[in-house]
Design goal:
- It contains no helices and 11 strands.
- The strands form 2 sheets. Strands 2, 4, 5, 6, 9, 10 and 11 form a 7-stranded mixed β-sheet that branches.
């Protein structure tokens, strides 16, 4: 059974940092890509970043480039999203998802975690 469990969300002031974790199980971690998405109230879910565990490729949405860093620990089957210089507009529920390759389209992913809330105060 595929399972993705996010953690690390919380409340932080603007300019602060958080590190999200996505612990994965139930599939061959090295063969898949893990994407991070977020959804703010009243808005559509949007792609934030993705890492392809098969070749190490990484992708970032323009709005987070230079502030967020995605990394993967294949020994722990865990993907991290380091978020620095956080802004109030980064406030959302953050989800991780798994698919064969990276895509910014949520519909491309079959399995999702439960999400973790990130709130950035001004």
């Amino acid at each position: 059974e595929v399972q993705l469990v996010e953690s690390g969300g919380g409340l932080v002031q603007a300019g602060g940092s958080l590190r999200l974790s996505c612990a994965a199980s139930g599939f061959t971690f090295d063969d898949y890509a893990i994407g991070w998405f977020r959804q703010a109230p009243g808005k559509e879910r949007e792609g934030v970043s993705c890492v392809s565990n098969s070749d190490g490729s990484t992708y970032y949405a323009n709005v987070v480039k230079g502030r967020f860093t995605i990394s993967s620990d294949n020994a722990k089957n865990t993907v991290y999203l380091q978020m620095n210089s956080l802004k109030p507009k980064d406030t959302a529920v953050y989800y991780c998802a798994v698919d064969r390759s990276c895509s910014s389209t949520p519909a491309a992913y079959d399995y999702w975690g439960q999400g973790t809330q990130v709130t950035v105060s001004s």
